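stuck on this fold:
=====
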Amino acid sequence: MARGNVDLTPFIRVALPFIAGYFLSYVYRMMNAVIGPTLAAEFGLSSGGLGLLSAVYFLSFALFQLPLGLLLDRFGPRRVNATLLLVAAAGALWFAFAHSAVSAIGARALIGLGVSGCLMASFTAFVLWYPADRLATMNGITFSAGALGAITATVPLELLLRVATWREAFLTLAAATVLASLILWFWVPERAGRGGASFGAQLRELGTIFRDPAFRHVALCLGASQSASVALQTLWVATWLRDVAGYDRQGVALGLLVVNLGMIVGYLGFGRAADRFARAGRSAFPLIVGGVAVASLCLALIAFGPAFKTTAGMGIAALALWFVFVAGGSSVVLGYALLSRRYPKEMAGRANTAINVIGFVGMFAGQWGIGLVLGRWPQSPAGYAPEAYPWALGMVWAVQLAGLVWLLTGRDLLEEAAAPRPS
């Protein structure tokens, strides 16, 4: 299994199965961007209702993060993730047979619960199997797999929907999720490192994480940034391309594919750069600041800049801005690797899921909030009012910018966080 000095066994036996689970979680996360108009028409949803249907995934995801961290550190990432994926498969089956908005929202929430462990289980497994100076790269590879999942939910999904219904697509996804669960359970080896402390002791250690000022600076910046970048990318970029840029359904799917390529560029690029910084004894803090600043600038230009529907050239400019916005916003996830050096390995699951709570609350609030703002203007037969988008996008831009300013006030703390603490 090894080539030269590189042992590929951990990647094939450990990383790939976890990465596959995260790939599927992003397909679930992104599907509403393409099928959203169909769901809105079938279930009679307003813009706020569509935002809630999509965002409830993030809410259930966030609510389970703290229990998830305890479970990961106590029972290990393999068992926890394999079990949760079966919950996601059940949610996908429920969604496929949903015939009311309430039922669809419940199913979407169950899917969010089921995939809530995919990323954090991957990060916890990497901490157990890889050296510290490889973590940012492994995290970047995982995020890039998520980007491939997002891309799968663009043009490939649109092509599938020409020959199958969205319900059949969810049935297929449910089967793939069951397969991923079985691979994790029967193929991935166990690794020593599960926490032996009581739940009470684990909770006390979790409290120390939340009291850590460095944690609060990273987590709140991440939540503020993701309230814009992920909330837009997984739903509202699609409606913006339709309502402001004038794309049809095929054009929207192609546009989303281009935009989501920015995730791959961002995650791999920032991950590699962060590991080079780590080997040189430098903090990834400047990379996070630079990336979020670029994303914030791009979003300001999109929200308050020229009308992008006038010419094909302007449409290309809009896609370029969305591409850079997504790529730059991906830098904020370097906070996971940055803080993982600050806590002992047996606390890795709780440290990562604690950050994730803030991140997914931001995603939920941003995605639902954008829908509520868009709903303040009369809806046309074609979609939402173009003049509503500067207000909706401007709202999350302001939150993202505030998060960046908050991060900058903790520079000294976060430079210190690059140095590991003894376990």
